[in-house]
Design goal:
Blueprint lengths: L1 H23 L8 H17 L23 E3 L9 E2 L2 H15 L8 E8 L2 E8 L2 E7 L5 E3 L2 H4 L17 E9 L2 H13 L8 H9 L4 H6 L3 E11 L7 H10 L9 E4 H15 L7 E8 L2 H7 L9 E5 L4 E13 L5 E12 L2 E7 L3 H7 L6 E5 L7 E5 L24 E2 L8 E2 L6 H12 L11 H9 L14 H5 L6 H13 L5 H7 L7 H11 L2 H6 L2 H5 L6 H12 L1 H12 L10 H4 L6 E5 L7 H10 L3 E3 L8 E4 L5 H8 L4 E2 L1 H11 L2
Parallel strand pairs: 2-11, 19-20, 19-21, 21-22
Antiparallel strand pairs: 1-6, 3-9, 3-10, 4-5, 4-7, 7-8, 10-11, 12-13, 12-15, 13-14, 15-16, 17-18
Helix pairs in contact: 1-2, 3-9, 16-17
The structure holds 2-(butylsulfanyl)adenosine (IVH).
The site of 2-(butylsulfanyl)adenosine has 14 residues, from strand 3 and strand 8.
Length: 674
C-alpha cells in the first residue's frame, strides 16, 4: 500500500513541478489552472494519508506551513557581498580602467563584461543538495542571514528540485526576490479592501512578504525570483564565464533574467545602460540600475575582492525616481477650458535625473485621497519621462495644525467665480475668454503640434508674447509684425522671420486640425476628426444641431452640447471669421455632395446582417445623410432586417412601415454610394 502511494506521490509531484516550470519559466502552460488544481488536491490527499512520505520538493510546500516562532540564523559559507556604485559614465570608465590596470590588459585591449539589470528586491541564497532545495537564507549582514526556506518554497517559479539527472552535491545559488508590478498592485488592492495599510513600493512588499513568520501568508503574495550568481559549489566544475553560468543555471530550471548582454568595453556598457533605462517602464518589475560583471571567471578570480565588494563588478545606478522635499505651497493653474488644476510648489529637489520644483497634484479628489496639506513633507516621484507628481506625504513629519488645501472660490487669474458642475470631476473658472489664462492656454493649444502645428511657437514663447501684451486671442497671432517680435528679449531678426514664416505656412491645414485647434471643450483629436469626416465643411459643423451631431459615430450628448455652445458664442464666431480673413484655410472634403443623397430618411436596422455588422451599415447610411434610429415609429422610412429579427418587424408591420431584407439594403447602399 505504502509502496503504491509512494510511487503515486512521486509521480504527481513530478507532473505538478513540470507544469509549474512550463507555466512560470517557459511561459507555455499545457494544462488549465483547473486541471492543475485537481492534481494538486489529489497529491494533498495522498500526503495527508501518508505524512511520512512528504518530500522536500513536494509542490504542496508552496502553499506554506504553520507559522514559526522566529527565524533561525544561517551563517553563509561564502559571504554575501554588496556592489560599488557608479552614477556617471566617468565613474564607469574609471572602474573599467582600474580593471584593465589590474589585469594588465594589453594596450588598446578591451574587457568583456556581462550586463544584467539590477533588480530592486532582496538578495537571497538558495542551497540545493543533490538537486533538492534544502535551505534559503536572506543576506542579513552579509555573514549571517535568516532561514526563510518555508517562505521561499512558496515561490512557484522556483524549482524545489533541479531539472537534471546528475545534480551537483552542493549548489548554492544567489539571486534576488522581488515582486512584479502587477502582483504589487494586486496585493495593495486586497490590502486596501481588507482595511489594511498598502505597501509603499514593490521592494517593501517583497521584503514584508518574505519575512512573514506565517508562510501561508507569503504564499498569498506572488513573489518572483531571478538567480544571478554562485555561492558554495561542490562535486561539479562550474562554467568559466558569468554568461555561461547563467545559461547553466537556467538549464537546471532556475529562473534567470533574459535582459542581459555581453558588452565589450565601457562604451558598449553605457549603451546598454541607456537601452535598459528606456526599457525600464516596460519590464513589469522595478530595477534600480545595471550591474556590469567581468565575464571571464579567471579574470574575476585575479581581480578578487575588497573588504565588502568585488573588484570585478560595479552597479551603474539609475537616477532615483523618488525624493523627499518640502511642499512650499499649493497653487491653482487655469487651463484652456477653465479647469483649475492644483500644482505643488516645492523646495527644489533632484529626482529622476532632473531638478523638480513643481509637481502636479491632479485634482482635489487626489489631494484628499493622499491627504496632502500645505507645508507637508512629501515624496516626489518622477519616473521616466512622466510629469513629476507628489506620490505621498511623510505624515510623521507633519507639523501640528497643517492646513488642508481648499479649492478657491474665485479664479486666481480673472477673479470670476469657480464652479464645479454636477458630475464634473473638475472645478472651472467661469470667465471663458474673458479670463487671460484661458485665452493664453487656448493659443498654446491652437499652435501645438497636433493642432495647427506652428513650428517654433512653443508654450514658452506664447507666454512671452502674452506677457508683452502682443497676443490676446488666437487671431492676434496673425497680426504680429517683425518689429514687435524683435523687441522681445532673446528674439533676433532671424527667429522673428522664421516665426512669421511658420505662421504663414501653417495657415494651410486640414479641417480636422483646425477644429481640434479651436479648443472646443470635450472635443479631442478623435472627435475633431470625426466631425470633419462626417460634415465635410466648417459651415456644416457650425450649422449642425445636437440631434444631427449625435448621429456622428463616437460623438455623444456631452460633446454635442459643447460643440453647439461653442459655435453659439458670438465671440467664437467672430474669432473664426477673423482667422479665415487672415487666410487660414482647409480643403472642403469631397464627400459632402454624396452625403445628402439619403437626407431626410430614417431607417431602423434589426437582426443579424451577413455582409457587414449593423454598426458598419449604420455608419454607411449616416455617411449618406440618413438617420439611423433604434426604434420603429411612424416616422421610420423603412426597416432593414437581417437574420432572426426581433419585435421591430412586427411593430413596423403594425405601423405600415415597409420592411426589406439585407439584399435590399445592399442595393440601397450601392445605388447611393459613389
Ligand atoms: S551580483 C558580489 N547581480 O544588488 C555581489 N546583484 O548592491 C554580487 N542585485 O546584494 C551581486 N540585481 O541584492 C548582482 N543582477 C544582479 C543584481 C544584484 C540586484 C542586488 C543584490 C546585491 C546588491 C548589491
Amino acid at each position: 500500500m505504502t509502496d503504491k502511494a509512494e510511487k503515486q506521490i512521486a509521480e504527481l509531484s513530478k507532473t505538478l513541478n513540470e507544469h509549474l516550470y512550463r507555466y512560470h519559466v517557459q511561459d507555455s502552460p499545457t494544462v488549465s489552472d483547473a486541471e492543475y488544481d485537481a492534481l494538486f488536491k489529489q497529491l494533498e490527499q495522498l500526503e495527508a494519508q501518508h505524512p511520512h512520505l512528504i518530500k522536500p520538493d513536494s509542490p504542496t510546500h508552496r502553499v506554506g506551513g504553520p507559522p514559526l516562532e522566529g527565524f533561525e540564523q544561517v551563517k553563509h559559507k561564502v559571504p554575501m557581498l554588496s556592489l560599488n556604485n557608479a552614477f556617471t559614465f566617468e565613474e564607469l570608465s574609471d572602474f573599467d580602467r582600474s580593471v584593465r590596470e589590474r589585469l594588465e590588459t594589453e594596450e588598446g585591449g578591451e574587457v568583456t563584461y556581462l550586463a544584467e539589470p539590477k533588480l530592486d528586491g532582496l538578495a537571497i541564497s538558495l542551497r540545493y543538495e543533490s538537486g533538492i532545495l534544502v535551505q534559503a537564507a536572506t543576506r542579513g549582514d552579509g555573514t549571517t542571514g535568516e532561514n526563510v526556506t518555508d517562505n521561499i518554497r512558496t515561490i512557484s517559479m522556483l524549482p524545489l528540485k533541479l531539472r537534471t539527472k546528475k545534480p551537483p552535491a552542493v549548489l548554492e545559488v544567489r539571486g534576488e526576490v522581488f515582486m512584479d508590478t502587477a502582483s504589487f498592485d494586486e496585493s495593495n488592492k486586497s490590502l486596501i479592501a481588507a482595511g489594511d495599510k498598502p505597501f509603499v513600493n514593490p521592494r517593501n512588499a517583497a521584503a514584508g512578504s518574505l519575512r512573514q513568520l506565517d508562510s501561508r501568508k507569503t504564499a498569498k503574495r506572488r513573489l518572483s525570483i531571478y538567480v544571478y550568481s554562485l555561492g558554495e559549489v561542490e562535486g561539479v566544475e562550474a562554467p568559466a564565464s558569468q554568461f555561461k553560468i547563467l545559461q547553466w543555471l537556467s538549464g537546471f530550471g532556475l529562473p534567470t533574467n533574459t535582459e542581459i548582454k555581453e558588452c565589450i568595453g565601457p562604451e558598449a556598457c553605457f549603451k546598454f545602460y541607456e537601452f535598459i533605462l528606456k526599457r525600464r517602464p516596460l519590464l513589469g518589475y522595478d530595477i534600480d540600475g545595471v550591474v556590469f560583471k567581468v565575464d571571464d571567471m579567471i579574470q574575476q578570480r585575479e581581480l578578487g575582492f575588497r573588504s565588502r565588494t568585488p573588484r570585478w563588478a560595479i552597479a551603474q545606478k539609475f537616477p532615483a525616481e523618488e525624493a523627499q522635499t518640502q511642499l512650499l505651497d499649493v497653487e491653482f493653474q487655469v487651463g484652456r477650458t477653465g479647469a483649475l488644476t492644483p500644482v505643488a510648489r516645492l523646495e527644489p529637489v533632484f529626482v529622476g535625473g532632473v531638478t523638480v520644483s513643481n509637481a502636479t497634484l491632479h485634482n482635489m479628489d487626489e489631494i484628499e485621497r493622499k491627504d496632502i496639506r500645505r507645508k507637508d513633507t512629501v515624496i516626489v516621484r518622477r519616473a521616466g519621462d512622466v510629469i513629476p507628481e507628489v506620490a505621498r506625504v511623510v505624515v510623521e513629519r507633519r507639523k501640528k495644525g497643517a492646513r488642508k488645501v481648499k479649492m478657491p472660490a474665485r479664479c486666481p487669474v480673472c477673479s470670476s467665480p469657480v464652479e464645479r458642475a454636477d458630475g464634473d470631476a473638475v472645478a472651472r473658472c467661469t470667465g471663458g475668454l474673458s479670463c487671460a489664462a484661458q485665452r493664453r492656454e487656448g493659443i498654446k493649444h491652437y499652435a501645438s503640434r497636433r493642432a495647427m502645428d506652428i513650428d517654433g511657437l512653443g508654450d514658452k514663447l506664447v507666454e512671452q508674447l502674452s506677457e508683452a501684451g502682443l497676443i490676446n486671442s488666437i487671431d492676434d497671432l496673425y497680426k504680429l509684425t517683425a518689429e514687435q517680435l524683435t523687441s522681445l528679449p532673446r528674439m533676433g531678426e532671424k527667429s522673428a522671420t522664421n516665426l512669421l514664416e511658420s505662421l504663414e505656412k501653417a495657415k494651410q491645414t486640414t479641417l480636422a486640425r483646425f477644429v481640434f485647434g479651436l479648443g472646443i471643450r470635450d472635443v479631442g483629436e478623435g472627435g475633431a476628426a470625426a466631425l470633419a469626416d462626417h460634415f465635410g465643411s466648417l459651415d456644416a459643423i457650425m450649422a449642425a444641431d445636437e440631434t444631427s451631431l449625435e448621429t456622428v459615430e463616437d460623438i455623444g450628448p456631452v460633446v454635442s452640447a459643447s460643440v453647439v455652445a461653442f459655435f453659439a458664442n458670438a465671440d467664437n464666431r467672430a474669432m473664426i471669421n477673423a482667422l479665415i480673413d487672415h487666410g487660414v484655410n482647409f480643403p472642403v472634403l469631397e464627400k459632402a455632395a454624396v452625403e445628402q443623397r439619403l437626407e431626410g430618411n430614417t431607417y431602423v436596422l434589426t437582426g443579424t446582417l451577413s455582409s457587414m455588422s449593423r454598426d458598419q451599415a449604420k455608419q454607411k447610411l449616416q455617411r449618406l445623410g440618413a438617420k439611423v434610429s433604434g426604434s420603429v415609429s411612424k416616422k421610420t422610412t423603412a426597416v432593414y432586417a437581417g437574420a432572426s429579427p426581433g419585435s421591430k418587424v412586427t411593430k413596423a408591420e403594425s405601423l405600415n412601415v415597409p420592411v426589406f431584407d439585407e439584399d435590399a439594403l445592399q442595393a440601397l447602399l450601392n445605388e447611393n454610394e459613389l
